[in-house]
Amino acid sequence: MYENxxxxxxxxxxxxxxxxxxxxxxxxxxxKLTGTHGIGIYEYDxxxxxxxxxxxxxxIDKNMIEKFEEMTGIKLKDPISIILN
Length: 85
Fold this sequence. Notes:
Layout: E1 5-13, H1 16-28, E2 32-37, H2 46-49, E3 53-61, H3 65-72
Antiparallel strand pairs: 1-3, 2-3
Helix pairs in contact: 1-3
């Protein structure tokens, strides 16, 4: 079932509208939210954060990426890869 799944990274606003769109796309595309990170967002409340952005990583079927991007307006990219020699 998960052999076509890949990890992708995106960036979204913390507004109610953007968060609802992202959650809807995650459910409809059978994706899995695997991590989030925001810089400077944790000391603010929900209203204050509505203009800020955060990064997220999802696990998603390769065939659903285009649908996810259309539903959210978020362009997904490969996560940063760190290679140590």
